[in-house]
Design goal:
heterodimer; A: 80 residues; mainly beta; four-stranded antiparallel sheet; two-stranded antiparallel ribbon; globular; B: 133 residues; three-stranded antiparallel sheet
Chain lengths: 80, 133
């Protein structure tokens, strides 16, 4: 299945959350990153969060946890 | 990089333009044994290490740009791999990602294709088999 039918991506990485593994994609258009998580109810991915990066990102390595999966993730991005 | 034979020393795998990957097992001297090559798909563009059928036993996957396929080589745990038939029907752009995204215990596959679509293939259990995107 295609998990991002409306938001084409230029780079992707996986990261672990308190609820399991999720996907972070650098959007192809606009200055943003979209996060996708698996929905057990729908048996598909859904876009959970999208946030602006301010500049056009080219890509991102896997984000690192900030101490606990529950407290958040630290993001690194490089720019085109 | 990975530890393919469980000796605690880093080993190396390379994707080669002739449709093979080469595995070089690390030695204590910081050098490597002679490369052993395995056939994969046409023109493997990138290679990744994952764990598909047995925890702690490294397996190898390649994204083959020449024929838009993904190859999975299952590790034995001693530095030797089974040659696997490539998957097909996938427009490969970059290194596939393997994780258990849906929590069913089997690694799933995620590929970013050349159009920017993220293609998800559900893992069908051991041996590196996946549902179609």
């Amino acid at each position: 299945m295609t998990i991002n039918p409306r938001d084409a991506a230029r780079d992707v990485t996986a990261f672990e959350t308190a609820n399991g593994w999720a996907v972070a994609a650098v959007d192809k258009a606009g200055n943003g990153v979209s996060l996708y998580a698996w929905s057990q109810a729908n048996h598909s991915f859904h876009r959970t969060v999208a946030f602006a990066t301010g500049r056009l990102p080219c890509g991102s390595p896997p984000p690192t946890s900030t101490g606990s999966k529950l407290t958040g993730i630290r993001w690194t991005t490089w720019w085109c | 990089m990975g530890d393919f034979n469980g000796d605690g020393k880093p080993d190396v795998v390379t994707a080669n333009g002739d449709g093979t990957v080469s595995v070089l097992l690390g030695l204590t001297t910081g050098t490597f044994q002679t490369a052993v090559s395995y056939n994969v798909g046409n023109d493997p563009q990138s290679v990744a290490v994952g764990y598909f059928d047995r925890p702690g036993i490294a397996d190898i996957v390649t994204a083959n740009s020449g024929d838009n396929t993904v190859s999975v080589l299952l590790g034995h745990g001693d530095g030797v791999f089974n040659s696997g038939a490539p998957g097909n029907g996938i427009a490969v752009r970059d290194t596939p990602i393997y994780q258990d995204f849906n929590g069913d215990g089997a690694p799933d596959e995620l590929i970013l294709d050349s159009s920017g679509e993220l293609l998800f293939r559900r893992g069908l259990g051991p041996a590196g088999h996946f549902a179609r995107p």
